């Protein structure tokens, strides 16, 4: 398939997702309780999310750097951990979010109920507004963490491991650090001794290459795993098993070498949304309420043009749980690519029939092929229904990949009958 055609198709998918999700950011806080109830949450087909993530990867590969330099006015948002409703609340609370930049400090997935919705919306905003929305990478945007703390399970329960990997490929292009007005150093975790070997922080763009996939790199582990402690002098080992704990002398040496006055970071759950360490040299921001306990607040920070800090707090509030939320299954039709499915079937006829008859006597099969004048690119869906003499109907979907010209069957549904 032509690269320009693929890029155009991916861009259209991104616009489609934008149209379906952006309206949620306009809902007034008092009406957010209707989201997932009267106002259904959007649910996208897997091939739509795959193409959207391909679009993000393409955009991030051209524009993102490991280290970025930002200016005020700017909002800083800490860990969200799948708290979709706090993301929506913070966005509305900022009042006019497009009149300033917004920096997210990482940890978008794992633990929370709405991980897919949260990270999809964040990637969408970063993709569509690259001059306003910036996403740093946290320790939970690495496979060795999100593979065992909830994100992989959430994605694979609804979709596939291929989609889970595609999200991580997008994470591989996220920056690790930022400065604000060349004065404040922003990072998910904290400092590393190896930073002191640099002449300037801009050298991070030379020594770190995106996409970055190494889960075991000690320098990067320091940046995304380390914590400040008031009683440490320089660097000591961390109880987390990765990164370090750093103290007063470590901060002062860093500030003296690079001309900075404060570290703004996330990574630690804070009951009240903010915590200062090391005599005010380090500020931790945590932006997910009800994380520490049912009454814990979410916090976010705005630094204005004068460099003044404004702290904002959002009290805990109950919203619909994911298990009870209503979703709208959205169907996307792409008019950019026509696929002759019958021709592809003829080429791979043996493989196709092997898939659809696997484990099912032919006499019990009912095969339907979705045919439209403009067939969906990348994944063509064919429904297979097994009709046993007793019990429930079971189904699979046979996905066709026109690039590889191959078919793959996955479980789809169980039903009482047609």
Q: Strand order of the main beta sheet, please?
A: 2-6-7-11-13-12
Radius of gyration: 24 Å
DSSP helix fraction: 25-40%
- Helix count equals 12
The 3D shape can be described as globular
Poorly predicted ranges: 336-347, 359-400, 409-418
Q: Using DSSP, what is the number of strands?
A: 20
Q: Any guess at the CATH architecture of the largest domain?
A: 4-Layer Sandwich
Rounded average pLDDT: 85
CATH secondary-structure class of the largest domain: Alpha Beta
Strand content: 15-25%
Protein name: Serine/threonine-protein phosphatase
EC number: 3.1.3.16
GO cellular component, one term: cytoplasm
Domain Serine/threonine specific protein phosphatases: 136-141
In a nutshell, what does this entry contain?
The protein has 418 residues and is of the alpha/beta class. It has 12 helices and 20 strands. Strand 9 and strand 10 form a beta hairpin.
Core attributes:
single chain, 418 residues, alpha/beta, Purple Acid Phosphatase, chain A, domain 2, 2 domains, 6-stranded mixed sheet, 5-stranded mixed sheet, 12 helices, 29% helix, globular, disordered C terminus
Please, could you describe this protein's structure?
It is an enzyme of class 3 (hydrolase). Residues 136-141 form the Serine/threonine specific protein phosphatases domain. Belongs to the PPP phosphatase family. This is Serine/threonine-protein phosphatase. GO terms for molecular function: protein serine/threonine phosphatase activity. The structure is a single chain. By secondary structure, this protein is of the alpha/beta class. It folds into two domains: 3-314, Metallo-dependent phosphatases (Purple Acid Phosphatase, chain A, domain 2, 4-Layer Sandwich); 338-415, no CATH class. Helix content is 29%, strand content 22%. It is built from twelve helices and 20 strands. It has helices at residues 3-21, 46-63, 84-93, 115-128, 143-146, 151-158, 161-171, 204-207, 218-225, 248-258, 341-347, 349-357, and strands at 41-44, 67-70, 74-77, 101-104, 133-135, 177-180, 184-187, 227-228, 235-237, 244-246, 262-265, 274-277, 282-285, 298-303, 309-314, 327-330, 365-369, 380-386, 393-401, 406-415. The strands form five sheets. A six-stranded mixed sheet has the order 2-6-7-11-13-12, with no helix packed on it. Strands 5-4-3-14-15 form a five-stranded mixed sheet. A four-stranded antiparallel sheet has the order 17-18-19-20, with helices on one face. A hairpin with a 4-residue loop joins strand 12 and strand 13. Helix 2 packs across helix 4 (115-128) and helix 2 (46-63) runs parallel beside helix 7. It is globular and about 55 Å long. The two termini are 37 Å apart.
């Amino acid at each position: 398939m032509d690269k320009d055609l693929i890029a155009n198709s991916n861009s259209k998918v991104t616009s489609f997702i934008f149209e379906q999700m952006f309206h949620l950011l306009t809902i007034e806080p008092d009406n957010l309780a209707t989201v997932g109830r009267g106002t259904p949450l959007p649910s996208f087909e897997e091939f739509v999310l795959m193409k959207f993530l391909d679009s993000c990867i393409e955009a991030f590969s051209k524009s993102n750097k490991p280290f970025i330099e930002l200016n005020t006015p700017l909002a800083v948002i800490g860990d969200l951990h799948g708290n979709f409703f706090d993301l929506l609340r913070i966005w509305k609370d900022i009042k006019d979010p497009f009149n300033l930049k917004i920096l997210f400090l990482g940890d978008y997935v794992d633990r929370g109920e709405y991980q897919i919705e949260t990270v999809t919306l964040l990637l969408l905003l970063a993709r569509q507004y690259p001059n306003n929305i910036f996403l740093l990478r946290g320790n939970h945007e690495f496979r060795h963490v999100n593979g065992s703390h909830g994100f992989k399970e959430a994605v694979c329960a609804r979709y596939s491991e291929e989609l889970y990997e595609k999200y991580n490929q997008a994470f591989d292009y996220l920056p690790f650090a930022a400065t604000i007005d060349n004065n404040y150093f922003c990072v998910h975790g904290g400092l590393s001794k190896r930073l002191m070997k640099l002449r300037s922080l801009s050298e991070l763009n030379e020594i770190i290459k995106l996409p970055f996939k190494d889960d075991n790199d000690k320098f990067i582990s320091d940046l995304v795993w380390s914590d400040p402690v008031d009683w440490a002098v320089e660097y000591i080992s961390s109880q987390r098993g990765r990164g370090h704990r750093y103290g007063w002398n470590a901060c002062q040496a860093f500030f003296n070498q690079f001309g900075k006055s404060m570290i703004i970071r996330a990574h630690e759950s804070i009951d009240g949304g903010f915590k200062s360490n090391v005599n005010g040299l380090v500020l931790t921001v945590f932006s997910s309420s009800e994380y520490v306990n049912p009454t814990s607040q979410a916090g976010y920070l705005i630094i204005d043009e004068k460099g003044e800090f404004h702290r904002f707090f959002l009290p805990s509030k109950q919203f619909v749980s994911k298990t009870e939320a209503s979703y709208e299954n959205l169907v996307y039709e792409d008019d950019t690519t026509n696929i002759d499915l019958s021709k592809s079937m003829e080429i791979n006829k043996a493989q196709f029939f092997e898939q659809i008859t696997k484990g099912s006597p032919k006499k019990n099969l009912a095969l339907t092929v979705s045919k439209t004048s403009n067939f969906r690119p990348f994944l063509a869906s064919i429904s297979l229904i097994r009709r046993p003499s007793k019990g429930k109907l079971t189904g699979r979907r046979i996905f066709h990949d026109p690039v590889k010209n191959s078919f793959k069957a996955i479980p789809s549904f169980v039903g009482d009958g047609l």
